[in-house]
Automatic annotation (TrEMBL):
InterPro entries: NA-bd_OB-fold, RFA1B/D_OB_1st. It comes from Vicia faba. Pfam families: DUF223. This is Replication protein A 70 kDa DNA-binding subunit B/D first OB fold domain-containing protein. Residues 6-67 form the Replication protein A 70 kDa DNA-binding subunit B/D first OB fold domain.
Length: 163
């Protein structure tokens, strides 16, 4: 009997093998210490996502199979899901560093908005959060995979602005 397809949200440390059906949502190359590897974001049917790192030694096995939008179905072994620390920050300033086209998008939005006294709600998907410690809590975009939404027309954003 075939094993059922599992959701990304089901991944845990209790076992080492899962049967997944995912789509490659984002993919990018990374150069570190003069070695190239690639990283991806997989998304399953339920909307769960996971960050995947393919080391240089395995790139040839996955390069042609993992184009953006392609679907993968099969077993995945020894996956680790990054812990997600969700912190609500109210009435505080959060340091945010944006690079390249993200800066241009933010600056244009800030110049074009009608009321500069109203705070901007910034939504970042696939961003890097730097924990408090030596430096204050901050967030930055990561390569070209971060999705930046400014004062997005979402009910949750409207509710937050109205508070």
């Amino acid at each position: 009997m075939a094993r059922p397809v599992e959701k990304i949200s089901d991944i845990n440390d209790n076992k080492e093998l899962w049967k997944l059906a995912v789509r490659v949502h984002h993919r990018w190359n990374v150069v570190s210490n003069n070695k190239v590897h690639f990283e991806m974001i997989f998304v399953d049917k339920a909307g769960g996502d996971i960050h995947v790192v393919v080391p240089a030694a395995h790139m040839s096995l996955f390069d042609k199979k993992t184009r953006i939008g392609s679907y993968l179905h099969g077993s995945a072994a020894r996956l680790r899901q990054a812990t997600r620390n969700n912190k609500l920050i109210c009435n505080n300033t959060l340091n945010c560093t944006l690079w390249e086209s993200y800066v241009e998008q933010f600056v244009k939005y800030n110049q074009d908005r009608a009321d500069a006294s109203v705070p901007i709600v910034v939504l970042l998907q696939y961003a890097k959060v730097k924990e408090e410690g030596k430096y204050p809590l901050s967030v930055t975009n990561t390569y070209h995979v971060t999705m930046l939404c400014l004062d997005a027309d979402f009910p949750l954003v409207k509710e937050f602005i109205d508070r």
